[in-house]
């Protein structure tokens, strides 16, 4: 029996050594799997963060482009309409010159004054036209609320309905912007 024990002991020791090796291998495999899983999770997290940052970058770039476009448009509008304030202030001056030119000159002295007023008026009109100020045509035109302000209605059987019959005050526009609509009388 002692011999058998000797023989079985080494077998038992071999089995225990194999079991220990298997246990170590399975522990290493579990650790490797856990490490691989952790690395895979970290990779997925980093991919998600990268995608978020790329989307954020694209949004910021689009916002920047929009701001730049808006600033360019505003700068162009400021340049285009830079004289609007001054021209608006000059409209009553133009009206007064036109009224002064409607007065009939009865003497030679008053005729020369009217001629001087006319020369100043023409110079002023040329200067404002260089800046883009134009008169809005109204007489005989179809009433357009974008360009005309109706202050009264009249009846004229010879004209179609909605046509401007009289202009009480000239209207002006600066390039494509109305700065003062024409005050008109419209046919019923």
From TrEMBL:
InterPro entries, A to Z: GrpE, GrpE_CC, GrpE_head
CDD domains membership: GrpE
Acidic residues biased stretches: 10-29
Keywords per UniProt: Chaperone, Coiled coil, Cytoplasm, Stress response
Secreted as UniProt keyword: no
Molecular functions (GO terms): adenyl-nucleotide exchange factor activity; protein homodimerization activity; protein-folding chaperone binding; unfolded protein binding
Assembly information from the UniProt record: Homodimer.
Sequence similarity: Belongs to the GrpE family.
Family matches, as NCBIfam families: PRK14140.1
Protein name: Protein GrpE
Species of provenance: Lysinibacillus alkalisoli
């Amino acid at each position: 029996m002692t011999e058998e024990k000797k023989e079985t002991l080494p077998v038992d020791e071999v089995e225990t050594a194999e079991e220990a090796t298997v246990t170590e291998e399975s522990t290493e495999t579990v650790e490797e799997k856990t490490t691989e899983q952790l690395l895979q999770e970290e990779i997925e997290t980093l991919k998600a963060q990268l995608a978020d940052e790329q989307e954020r970058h694209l949004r910021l770039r689009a916002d920047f482009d929009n701001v730049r476009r808006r600033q360019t448009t505003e700068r162009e509008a400021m340049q285009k309409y830079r004289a609007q304030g001054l021209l608006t202030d000059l409209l009553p001056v133009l009206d007064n010159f036109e009224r002064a030119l409607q007065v009939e000159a009865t003497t030679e002295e008053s005729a020369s004054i009217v001629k001087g007023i006319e020369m100043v008026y023409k110079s002023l009109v040329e200067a404002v036209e260089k800046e883009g100020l134009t008169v809005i045509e109204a007489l005989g035109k179809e009433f357009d609320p974008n360009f005309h302000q109706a202050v009264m209605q009249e009846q004229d059987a010879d004209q179609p309905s909605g046509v401007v019959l009289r202009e009480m005050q000239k209207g002006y526009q600066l390039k494509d912007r109305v700065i003062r609509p024409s005050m008109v009388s419209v046919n019923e």
